[in-house]
Amino acid sequence: MKDNEFWRDIPPIDLTGRRCRAVTEHGTVIEGRLEYTLSRVTQFPDEPALEQLSFADVLQPVILNLNGDHVGNRLCTCYRSLEEVG
Q: How far apart are CA 65 and CA 27, in angstroms?
């Protein structure tokens, strides 16, 4: 599967609910809807924030973004590709 990198320039929260297919480094295919999680060290809005997108029931996130920089979306290292399927 070829990664079309549709996810690179979209804010993580806007990817929530999209149906996607990911392939891990070991060739496992995971398909489902992306779920969004926001984590902060403190409750202050200017503190560092970590945005994550993952599949339901899969502990390893698919996309990470630090401090809300949507250009900073990164595919997690255990994944080889991610594509939208519908």
A: 24
Which of 66, 79, 71, 56 has the alpha carbon at shortest distance from 11? Answer: 71
Q: Is 65 exposed, middle or buried (0-12, 13-18, 19+ CB in 10 A)?
A: buried
Count: domains in the chain: 1
32: left (phi over 0), alpha (psi -120 to 50) or beta: left
Q: What's the DSSP call for residue 16?
A: T
- Cβ atoms of residues 80 and 61 within 8 Å: no
pTM comes to 0.84
pLDDT digit string, tens, across residues 30-67:
999 999 999 877 777 677 788 999 999 998 999 999 87
Burial class (CB in 10 A: 0-12, 13-18, 19+), 29: exposed
Nearest to 50 by CA among 74, 22, 79, 17: 74
